[in-house]
Amino acid sequence: MKICVLNITPVPAEYLAASRATVDACCAGVLAQGTELALRAPELGTVTLPQYLEDFRNPWFQHLVVHEVIGSVIEADREGFDAIVVNCFDDPGVNEARARVRTPVFGLSEATFHHACQLGARLGALVPDMPGQVAFVQRQIEAMGLSARLIPNGVRTECKRFTESFAEALADPGAMIARLDAQARELVDDGADVVVIACGGLGQVCGTQGWHVIEHNGALVPVVNPLATAVKTAEMMVGLQRALGIPVPGQAHAVRLSADDIARIERGFGINGR
Questions:
Q1: Do the domain assignments include residue 85?
Q2: pTM of the full structure
């Protein structure tokens, strides 16, 4: 099985190389023998990491991200991947892409929160310190029907600006893990019995450091890693589809477009097969 992990924006070459290494480290030992991961990123634009992070809650920027995600998903679909994981906790373009391609598409948020509900009754989440991120993740949880599982004030930010924290994490990941660990313990003290890392980038750093569980007041509390969870979910659901015929995400859509319909619509919008 081949799974495509799709970064969501163009990034500098040095970051893409680092991201490839952290993706491999984060998912090491998670997948079955014979399952392969391939990392892809959009080629358009000249977005740098700090600019991208500061822009992320801007609706126009989000629109451009979704456009690039869908285009990259179409390309991955043509390459023949068995599943595609969009490597961002916002799940940008996931529903739209599912309606366009036959390859099953998975988002980090959906996979992670539903898995977390199997590990505990009360959820807490840690998000990067980016404008509007707490409210956005709270809306995601509400849209999935899981608000009752979230402890009061259950979505909390990493205490440093994410641009600073991520740069630090590449050089000294232990310092960031120590801060996240302290905040996770506060969530547990306030009633959480499972903690979600609600960010793809933070999750990759946590995965490379092997931070997946905390022992607190005599209890083992899971720390759910979004990328590892999503790629394993993709592998599992494709496997169930092959073995039992259970539809994968996208196949259960009430309306499926034919290839002729897709071509007609794309011509109408001036899209050249992407």
A1: yes
A2: 0.89
Contacts of 250 (CB under 8 A, 6+ apart): 98, 99, 101, 102, 104, 105
Please state the three-class secondary structure of the chain as a single string: CEEEEECCCCCCHHHHHHHHHHHHHHHCCCCCCCCEEEEECCCCCCCCHHHHHHHCCCHHHHHHHHHHHHHHHHHHHHHCCCEEEECCCCCCCHHHHHCCCCCCEEEHHHHHHHHHHHHCCCEEEEEEECCCHHHHHHHHHHHCCCHHHEEEEEEEEEEEEHHHHHHHHHHCHHHHHHHHHHHHHHHHHCCCCEEEECCHHHHHHHHHCCCCEEEECCEEEEEECHHHHHHHHHHHHHHHHHHHCCCCCCCCCCCCCCHHHHHHHHHHCCCCCC
CATH number at residue 196: 3.40.50.12500
pLDDT tens sequence across 185-204:
999 999 999 999 998 888 88
CA distances from 113 to 25, 88, 183, 245 (A): 22, 14, 18, 25
The 3 state secondary structure assigned to 11-54 is CCHHHHHHHHHHHHHHHCCCCCCCCEEEEECCCCCCCCHHHHHH
**Residue 49 lies in domain:** 2-107+228-268
- Residue 119 pLDDT exceeds 80: yes
Task: Report the CATH number at residue 256.
Answer: 3.40.50.1860
Q: How many domains does the chain have?
A: 2
Structure tokens at 226: 């979004």
Per the domain annotation, does 273 fall within a domain? no
